[in-house]
Design brief:
By secondary structure, this protein is an alpha/beta fold. It is built from seven helices and ten strands. It folds into two domains: 72 residues, Orthogonal Bundle (Muramoyl-pentapeptide Carboxypeptidase, domain 1), CATH 1.10.101; 145 residues, Collagenase (Catalytic Domain) (3-Layer(aba) Sandwich), CATH 3.40.390. Helix 5 packs across helix 6. The protein is globular and about 55 Å long.
């Protein structure tokens, strides 16, 4: 009888241990994701400057090439003249102190989750292009500087194309995505010449929306949680991809990203806008976890109207 009681006590304890492991497993997995974030390598580079050789600088060069700041960089960990120039250009684009070194503010900005579209394409497009605009009702001495940009070659939809159709890849949770994307498209429609209409024909739609994971066949693979959130192509390609490995929510959430805010940004790319250095603009490249960004800034409006003037 005593052996039977001991057996039941042992089984009960094992079941408690198993339940505790199952309870903690999601938390342990989440911690692992945090440690392996795509931009994690940046934290070990603080203070690096020209003339040094530091392990991890090659990853930084790949990062900067991905977003347009370097071309055909040397595959090494040397902090050379070209890397310093690329960092200075990055700092200018993000309104940081132009030191050319990896100071804390620069690394903090580089570490933020962001859009996968480059800040500079073919060396011709820059977020800090600084188009000066004088408003007609202001005094002659008052000017504002726009920071919107366009893709290389300034691609745009033809003048006859004012209605753009969009469709979701079959299998996408359309019931959740439809109202989100509809609201985002309507905000852009209100400040531009475009109208948007959903279609069921994915193959012939002007804009194709899908959730993709890793290497998904377009030469721009996603990198897992916390790195590149999404990317979209310039006119008239029309592809719009979310990274399926991110935690997506409708609305702000402390542990994920708002699908509508990202839609607002990527639609700007689909229409032909590049990135802007104005922090409040929709076309600013980064989005913080737990935030919503739905209101078009005047810089966004000036950009789309300038592109299709």
């Amino acid at each position: 009888m005593q052996q039977l009681i001991n057996y039941h006590q042992m089984a009960h304890r094992l079941s408690l241990v198993l339940a505790l492991i199952l309870l903690l497993l999601p938390l342990l997995s989440h911690g692992k994701d945090d440690r392996s974030r795509p931009f994690e390598f940046l934290r070990h580079l603080e203070g690096c400057r020209k003339g040094e050789t530091v392990k991890g600088l090659n990853e930084l060069k790949r990062y900067l090439e991905r977003f347009g700041y370097l071309n055909n960089h040397k595959d090494d960990d040397d902090f050379d003249d070209l890397l310093e120039l690329a960092i200075k250009t990055y700092q200018l684009n993000y309104n940081l102190n132009v030191t050319g070194s990896l100071d804390p503010e620069t690394l903090k900005q580089m570490s933020l989750p962001r859009c996968g579209a480059p800040d500079i394409t073919n060396g011709t497009t820059s977020m800090r292009s600084g188009k000066e605009k004088k408003h007609p009702h202001e005094r002659k001495t008052l000017h504002t500087v726009s920071r919107y940009s366009f893709f290389s070659g300034i691609p745009r939809w033809p003048p006859s194309k004012t209605l753009l159709t969009y469709a979701f890849l079959p299998g996408t949770p359309v019931s959740s995505m439809r109202p989100v994307c509809d609201r985002a498209f309507q905000r852009w429609a209100a400040v531009s010449r475009f109208r948007f209409q959903e279609t069921q024909d994915y193959l012939t739609a002007d804009i194709k929306i899908s959730f993709e994971r890793g290497d998904h066949g377009d030469k721009y693979p996603f990198d897992g949680p916390g790195g590149v959130l999404a990317h979209a192509y310039a006119p008239t390609d029309g592809r719009f991809h979310y990274d399926a490995d991110e935690k997506w929510y409708i609305g702000a959430s402390l542990d994920g990203y708002d699908v509508e805010s990202v839609a607002m940004h990527e639609i700007g790319h689909l229409l032909g806008l590049g990135h802007s250095s104005v922090g409040n603009s929709i076309m600013y490249p980064s989005l913080l976890m737990g935030t919503q960004k739905l209101k078009l800034d005047q810089d966004d409006i000036d950009g789309i109207r300038s592109l299709y003037a």
